[in-house]
Amino acid sequence: MTLDRWIALIILLICLCYGYQAFFIMDLGLPPFMQRNPVWPSTFPKLLAVMGIMVSAAILLGLEKSDQTPAEGDINYRALGQYKTGQALALLSLMVAYAVLLRPAGFLVSTTGFLILGAVVLGERKFQYLIPIAVLAAGSVWYLVQVVLGIFLRPWPFFLGIG
Amino acid sequence: MIEGFMIGLSTAFSITNLLMVVGGCLIGTFIGMLPGLGPMSIIAIMIPVAISIGDPSTALILLAGVYYGAIFGGSTSSILINAPGVASTVATSFDGYPLARQGKAGKALTVAAIASFCGGTIGAVLLMIFAPMLASVALLFHSAEYFALMVVGLSAIAAFAGTGQVGKAALMTILGLIMATVGEGAMFNLPRFTMGIMDLQSGFGFITLAMAMFALPEALYLVLDPTRSKSGDSGSSGEIKDLRITHSEARAIAPVIGRQSIQGFLIGVLPGAGATIASFLGYAVERNIAPKDEQSQFGKGSLKGLAAPESANNAACTGSFVPLLTLGIPGSGTTAILLGALIALNVSPGPRLMVDQPQIFWSVIISMYLGNLILLVLNLPLIPYIAKVLLVPRNYLIPFILFFTLMGAYIGQNNATELLILVGFGVCATVLRFAKYPLAPLLIGFILGRMMEDNFARSMQLYDGINFIVARPMTMGLLFIAAVLVVLPSYRARLQAARAAKRD
After folding, report:
1. How many domains does chain A fold into?
2. Which of the two residues, B324 and A48, has the higher pLDDT score?
């Protein structure tokens, strides 16, 4: 089975769960005054669930001819080993770490770390350029967002206060 | 009218107001380039500054300049790094980013600047002529028509985004609509499909989803395949900075800009429709009416595909001032914030504004011409420098794209969970892209989903059921167009296949 049909199968399962929730669960706790309305919170989701099941089933059953030949410049998922998959996974992990550490480590530390480590993962070794650029970029964005625009971003780690 | 126009002219051309337009455009352009900060947030940030000015005309001129600048700035990040920070510039990235990857970033930014200028200017002329008349027409559109209009927009996108694979595009649209139902809706104050997770109470963030669908998969593609970023599939730095548009290109995009400026303006006039629907519909319409050989270029770097949404969204921004200034009804989130600013400045927009305070009404319209002109004059010389972003080495560019993607999602909601959602959706979007599922319909479905459900629910309540479709001929007509749009591509494809079989 090709990848697009596997995806159609997963979306079909999502639509089935979504439809089950809309048809059988959502209306259980509906207050009586809402039950007299011609439209319920579940009305639109019910329509979407039916449509989603129909269209995903059509793709799964191969009613639409699928085009799986990778175009020029496209990535062939069947040969992911030929690509820099390790670097991509490392960057994704770095993004997750950034998300987790942004608040406790503070914006300046986590952003500088993210930019330096991100470039290192991609093969950059000229630290004499990399470190000043990362520090300058993190500082400028923090200044623009917090000082100019007034959107709060804690600059330093939690143990140094919120300054 | 002439007298009011002259008063407006003298107000708009005062030194202070000219400085305000220039300042507003500059601020808007630079902050608008940051993904995550759309016109709505920038205007909200600028309101205290505008109110402190005191004079309503000057304040509104500043805010209008910021508005235009922010829309243009948003287009820049869409074109250069495929990170549309604003819903109305999503369609710009469909062809703008492929053009940048072909080494035509300078040309793409120039076309965007010119199309925005023409859209905004034509919109301002139309606003001046038709404002009072259009206000009454806009009131004929009820929730049923808005619902049908959105169905038309989504059908057009589903029909044309999938390049022959209507089923996949339709499935992505439905998935986007499904995602829009997560969280508390405006009509029903009940949390839906949140699975008990508090962070999902307000639904998924638009910017998070936009970044996950466009910027993150593109950055991952650049990482996976380094040959993609070696000169960006593109030419030399000279080519990237090249702004020139040939005569034949100008001839090709001129009618598109003309058509989409008018269509965009008319859509912008409808309260609730706004620049987002205008840009998507503009793109879909131009793709549909283009000759067969040009149709295949849409999504791969077509200048027409770039000019259409750019002119439509700017004209719609101007159009959205019609209901605001003549009826006091804000047509979009941004104009709602502008309305708040006007009220804070003791101005009551409505039918009497043109008569009681003509200097405000006309000076704002005239400052729109000025704003567009200033944007063009300011941005054209800057384009070679802005386009240089693409010449930054890959090892530096990719971490920065990822960082701006993360920042966009974080600033929008100020919630670190959004970043985890972004990474999760980004990985899913990359897998969908591997399998050639078009991602734009998903995002469009998500953006229009909530508005669509609200209008659907309102129509159902007003007409006590689904009979609003029969009761309102305009709704029925629009839904008929939507059905034709979905059926037409498959019918055409079958017809072609039958012809080819006959020939063989």
Report:
1. 2
2. A48
Give residue-wise pLDDT tens across range B133-180. Answer: 766 666 677 888 888 878 887 887 677 665 567 888 889 999 999 999
Q: Which of residues 28-87 of A touch B (CB under 8 A)?
A: 34, 37-39, 41, 43-45, 48-49, 51-52, 55-56, 58-59, 63-64, 66-68, 73, 75, 77, 80, 83-85, 87
pLDDT tens per residue, range B381-416: 877 777 676 677 878 888 988 898 888 788 767 788
pLDDT reading at B315 higher than 80: yes
**Number of Cβ within a 10 Å radius of residue B159:** 24
State the residue for tokens 């996108």.
Answer: B157
Q: Do B457 and A45 touch (CB under 8 A)?
A: no
The range of the structural domain enclosing residue A132 comes to 83-160
Burial B340-349 (b: 16+ CB within 10 A, else e): ebbeebebeb
> Is A47 found in the same domain as A13?
yes
Q: How distant, in Å, are the alpha carbons of B177, B182, B199, B200 from that of B196? A: 20, 11, 9, 8
Number of independent structural domains in chain B: 1
Q: What is the mean pLDDT of residues A65-92?
A: 78
- Is B338 in contact with B330 (CB distance < 8 Å)? yes
Same domain, A94 and A45: no
Cross-chain residue pair B193–A98, CB shorter than 8 Å:
no
ipTM value: 0.91
Residues of A with Cβ-Cβ distance to B185 under 8 angstroms: 41
Mean pLDDT of A42-48: 92
Are A92 and A129 in a shared domain? yes
For residue A75, is it within any domain? no
Residue A11 domain-assigned? yes
Contact of B375 with B361, CB cutoff 8 Å:
no
Tokens representing residue B220 in the block: 């991952």
In a domain, A154, yes or no: yes
DSSP string, B51-98: HHH--HHHHHHHHHHHHHHHHHHHHHHHHHHS---SGGGHHHHHHHHH
> How confident is the model over B146-157, as pLDDT tens digits?
888 788 878 876
First and final C-alpha spacing in chain A: 56
Written as six digits, the tokens of B128 are: 């001046």
As a whole number, mean pLDDT of residues A30-37 equals 82
